[in-house]
Every structure is written in C-alpha cells, then in structure tokens.
Amino acid sequence: MIILGINSYHPDSSAALVADGKLIAAVEEERFVRVKHFAGFPAESIKYCLKEAGLSIKDVDYIAIPRKPCARIFKKMIYGLKIPKLAKKRAAGWRKTFDVKTELSRALDTGVKDIRAKIIKVEHHRAHLASSFFVSGFDDAFLLSMDALGDFASTMWGLGRGNKIKVLQEIDFPHSLGLYYTAVTQYLGFTNFGDEYKIMGLSSHGEPSFEDEFKNILKIKNNGFEIGLGYFLHHKKYISMDFEGGYPRVDTIFSPYLEKRLGRRRLAGEPLEKRHKDIAASLQKRLEEVILHILGSNKTKTSNLCLAGGVAFNCAANGKIFDEGLFKNIFVPPAAGDAGLAIGAAFYLLNNVKNKPREFIMNHACWGPGFKGDEIERAFEKNKGEFIKTGCVVEKIEDEGLLCEKLARYIADGKIAGWFQGRMEFGPRALGNRSILADPRRPEMKDILNNRIKHRESFRPFAPSILEENLNEFFDTAQPSPFMNSVYKVKNGKRDIIPAVIHVDGTARVQTVNKDSNRRYWKLINAFKRVAGVPALLNTSFNDNEPIICRPEEAMDCFLRTRMDILALENYLIRK
Asked: What CATH number is attached to the domain comprising 12?
C-alpha cells in the first residue's frame, strides 16, 4: 500500500510518502522554494517523495489530507453567521482540498485521470496525534495535540493503544493555547509568523510578576482550559490568516483590553524592558500550568506520553513535564507542528483506518534529500571560481574517521564549521545533517556566531548536541532527546564546561546523538571528545535568516557569504 500525505495551503506545507507500512520520505516545501513556513501547495515536496521512493503518482493508492471540512460543522456554521468573512475564507480553503488532483496534475504534468489514488481526509488533530503515536514505538500512550487552530479545534487528547487512537476530549474554537501564545507574542513586538519560540527564550530572562493577570487571560477549567475572550479579537471579528501561498501572515489577535491591562504594546525594534521580559515569563508559566493540569487529569494509567501540534515545540514546557514525573517516557516527533501533518495523515489512514499493523519507529529525522557523487561535483564546479577568488583550500578525505578528527581539531581551535551530511532533517531543527557547529566550551562563542553568521536576538540561546551515553553526566535526566524538543537542567559541576550552550536559567535545549541513528555525527562529537575532553558540540541550524539549507549549492553559498571558517560537505573539507 502506497500512501502520499500532503499538508497544503497551510503553514509549513509538506509531503510524506509511506510505502508498505514504512516512511520513505518527508520534507517541507520551504526547503525547495526558500520561503520560510511556505503555505501553498507542496509541489516540489511531492516530486521529491515520489522520486526518493522510485515511484510515479500512478503507483500511489491513497492520498491522505489532514483536513476534514465536515468536522464540527455546526460550530463552523454558527461562527460563519457571526463572522461571514471567516466563513468565506474557510470555504475557499476547503475547496482547494477537494481539488487536490487538479493541483497534482499541474505539478506533475500529468492528466487528472492518471491519478488513480483515492483521497482520504483526516481531521487535523487526529493527524497530529497519529504523527506522534504511530511512529513512537510505544504500545500505548496518552496523546495530546495543542496548536492554534485546525478544523475548528485547538486541542485534543486521547489514548493510543496498538493501532488505534481513541479521542477522549477536545477543546474547540475560540479557546486555544496556540492563539493565546501568538497573541502575546505579537503584543511583545514579535509579529512574524512562527516567532513564538523567541518569546519562550525571552521568558527565562524575566520573573512571572504578571501571573495574576495571566490567570484571567488563560483559565483552568475542569480538566481543560479556556481563554479570557475579552483579551482577544479572533472570536468576534475576522482575523486575516493568509495561507494561500508564500509566507504566511496573521493579523493582530490581541484586543485593546490586553493593552489596557498590561500596558502599551511593544513595537518591533523598541528596547526590551524588564516589563516585557516579565510578561513573557508570566505567559510561559501559565502555559506550563495549564499543560500540566491537562496531563495531571489523565486517568489512562499509561506511563507513556506523545505530544504533537505547534505548542509541543515549547521545549521549556516539555522539560517541566519531566520535572513533574507525570510520565516515564515522552515522545515528541521532530516535526511536531503542521509539517508533521503529512506523516500523521498517512499513518492515521494506514493504521487507524485500514487497520494495518504498526511496522515503523521514527528513531531519526533524516527523511529529506541527500546528495552524492556527481551532484556534489557539479556544485563544486559552479562555485570553483569563488573558491579560488577567496583563497579557499579544498581537501577531499575519503576516510570518515580522519575527516571527523580533522574537523574536531578545527572546532576545538575556535573555528566555526558548516556540516552538510546525508539526508536533510524533517522539521525545524538541525540535528546533525544540516548544522553549523562550534566549541561549547567558549563563553564568547554565542556572540561570535551571532555577529558573524546568525544575527539573532541576544536573548536566544544556542543548543548542545551530546553523545547519548554521556547525557546523564551533564544533565539531570537520562531520558534521550534525539529531536531537541526538551529543555533539561545542566548539572552544577558542568555549567562552566559548556557555557556557550547554557541558558540564563541553567538549562539547555538538548539533542542526544545515538551511534546507530546518525553514525557520522556521533563520530564527529566523539572525536571532539577525544580532542577537547567534552562529549558535546554547539549545534545550530545551517542558515542565515532563511530556511535551513537543502542543497550543496546553498551550503556553499551560505559558507561563502558569511564568516564561517570551514565547511564539511560530505567528504570534502573547504577552508577559508
């Protein structure tokens, strides 16, 4: 059975292909079209998935779409009467999901009749739950999906057991943890789509001195929550959410009453005052309290937890779940947000609908394009003139151990390295295949990286990649974190050893690296351990205010236009 999952006309549009029960490929469209959070039709992603599987669209049995227009239809009708423009925009989006075969025929230059696949629509949050549980390896788990909005719901939880998902409860529009966090993110002057993670980083710099007000903004109710509607606009007027193609944009969600209670909004570019940091801290603390309340109300008696939805990227909240000890094992997929819907829809169809046994466990995130041989050579030819012009030294090293040893020594000497290896990661994190790497022992490295390459806000931390077997030596947990989705406390005796990757609150957003799931990256970190005595590297995404690089040409371009020192491109070392 061949299933193509497609997340289209939604932020982080993506495609995934599942063949005979196993994931073959998954990728976000932004990596091809070079537009962050691209929200159109994932034409290039679909082409890649089919190519990687060695298939054509004629071979596909099912197309799984993570959108179900008939879900919660009566609530949609009520709000459609209240906000007619909202109904009109939603209807336009639904029509596009019905017309997916026409879009595919255009993208693949084939006739609609050649696409024999049956289209199956999967409700948004069920796809989120499936994207985590059905690839987790857990026999059973409590499942929780949290985001802004999908099919008129914002939150859903349930029980996964075997190849079935049982929904226990959901929270519908207008109450939403995602919209709650986005609204305050906008209020704090961060108005680009996807800026919420910046506020998560900022929150550690403040104190939750506004927590009483935030208990009114976000209220605990029974075993769920509701938002204080007076602080928001989305329930009473049309809020433009431009997901028709290109970069997604969302209009202002918070109301004048929020400003009345918290003070004048911060405009982009204005200084960050203590008040702003305290508001961020209060926002984050209340989110954590509500998530822990939902999880604490769990009566399923399972020790496993699967999280999904955009809110599942809140690493600080995930870390608090570990601290509370509510679950023994937690799984958060690398693409917990909307990109992962393509995988979730496909596996929900396979396992839950078609009743096929589970055969796949996601133990790595590398499901995107890889480049070898002639493709690398062609990229070198294109940039040969620039390498000569800038005095680069190009060295080809076939011995993997020697390559890692040499690069580890350069990093230990304070050099900043681009690392381009194997297939690209799926999801927003660089996890050792499209990374920029540096020495975590150097406290000045954060500022050096920001000044020379990343140009990020000073309050945002960088993350460590650590050998899985050394995790407990440096952090107060032994739970692996292969997808960098949790924040752990650094042990007191280790904070002076890796200062470049420690946040102001003594925590770090950790990625654990397993020898079996990413051999070459493990070898590099192990080589650095031999050279520098530390089993970890500073790891940040290989990009500069753009989507993470995908192709070797993009890696070379980023290397040449920034003040990066060295590039490890497969078996090549390129030094300035």
From this structure: 3.30.420.40
Give the pLDDT mean for 346-367. 98
pLDDT tens digit sequence for 371-409: 988 899 999 888 888 998 899 999 999 999 999 999 999
Residue 445 inside a domain? The answer is: yes
Phi, psi dihedral angles at 545 (to 5 degrees):
55, 50
Measure the CA–CA gap between 79 and 91, rounded to whole angstroms.
13
The pair of three-digit structure tokens given for residue 149, joined into one six-digit string: 């909005």
Letter for the amino acid at 573?
L
Contact 69, 121 (CB under 8 A): yes
Inside any domain, residue 247: no
Of the candidates 126, 155, 190, which is a domain's last residue?
126
Nearest alpha carbon to residue 13 among 341, 426, 349: 341
Helix residue ranges, H only, 230-313 = 256-262, 274-296
Tokens 């590297």 found at: 537
| Contact call for residues 182 and 148 (beta carbons, < 8 A) | yes
**516-544 per-position pLDDT tens digit:** 999 999 999 999 999 999 999 999 999 99
pTM value is: 0.95
Q: Residue 232 and residue 178: Cα distance in Å, rounded?
A: 13
For 232-246, write each residue's pLDDT tens digit: 999 988 787 777 668
Report the interhelical angle of 43-53 vs 100-108 (nearest 10°). 70
Q: State the sign of the Cα–Cα–Cα–Cα dihedral 104, 109, 113, 118.
A: negative
Contact 23, 3 (CB under 8 A): no
Q: What is the pLDDT of residue 187?
A: 98
In this structure, is residue 453 part of a structural domain? yes
Residue 348: count other Cβ atoms within 10 Å of its Cβ: 28
